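pasting for ref
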Amino acid sequence: MLRNLLSNFQGSVFQHRNNIIYYLLLGGLMLFLLKPGVNVPFVVRAGLMFLVLFPAFSRPEYLPFCMTCIVGISSNSFYEIVPTRPDIYILIILILYINYKKRSGFFLNAFAVYFIFLLFSLVHGDFPTFLSWGLVAVILADFIKEKKDINNLMLAFIVVSFILSLLFLLYRDQFTVDYGRLDEQLERAYWTNSNRFGAAIAAGGVMAVVYLSGLLQIEKKRALTFLSIGTIVLVFPTLVFNASRGAFLAFILASSLSVVFSKMRTDVKVTLIVISAYLLYNLYMGSDMFELLRARMESDNTETAGSRTTIWQRKLLAFSAYDVATQFVGIGRSACVHLGGYISTHNDFLTAFIGYGYFGLILFSMLMAYPLFYAPRRLKKVVLVLSVYMVIECFVLEPFFRGYLFFLMFYIFTLRFVMIEKKSPS
């Protein structure tokens, strides 16, 4: 009886616009609770987690949306207001999954790919974090079977970026640290891994731009349109101040492609792109707002220890010393992390190669390329935009092999969007 009451209540309340209102109210509550130096009591944290997952208790199709929101916000804020251990969520998801009667049938196909990485990891005596979060993403993908589920997941990325950007802009002055260069001393604000944070912010920003451009072929809703515009307004300065080069480039390039591929008149497109490029160039070259981002862009053209190219060269050189058989199967994710004297490759493709050998690199490259090649002609533009974001992040970060759930769900979104749209009439 309680389940029926919940289902009826949620069926009437959790429509698309009300989803936005509900989670923005929860976001406001999180903004109120999340204050630097203040520990939120466990009872309050547990209650908030219940409220975030509430729609999924009797409507499991909301689970991908809820999980993306709760993990995306908590794992990227300065304080984990709800737990972000994968085993907790695997248990919750499995309980709901067992009782879910409308599975899409996607699980077995996705699990086959997952199993290959699992097998290789076990051979290397390894069980990296990305396998746990990968299992979460694989199971969640089976809850996405209709276009409305795709719409809800798109909304999740936008909500996460909106809330995290607000958090950053409100409290960034309390998290400034020195960022040193030989010629000057700058300040950088961050409370977590700034590259991961930037990638999460950029994901929602790209999704908002793609939605507004009309490429997703989703009916425009006033509330979602206002939220998307507000998210873009907040995301841009957040990415600049956060100064993650990869996230900034991914957002700018993917957003630019969205405008190019949109259905706006050609003269409007050209005008918008020219004006935006002119303003961006002048701000980048002359504004103090971009000072740290400029410094970090320039640092990768030097021989500094933080240079991506230096890290890649040294890891590849160290891996080349192994025999051919080892190069074919790799040395495992954990050994790859420390190879060459660095604790990160800053490149998912390089991690796939060193960790899982030539076979792993080919498999991972196929994974990244599959949505674009599988997409019908009418969807290739939007899939290309989404793929540009993912490939750039994979080249400068390790969102896949570090198990960042927001990135795994972004990939799931892209793949399931193509599969669902391909079945629908053009």
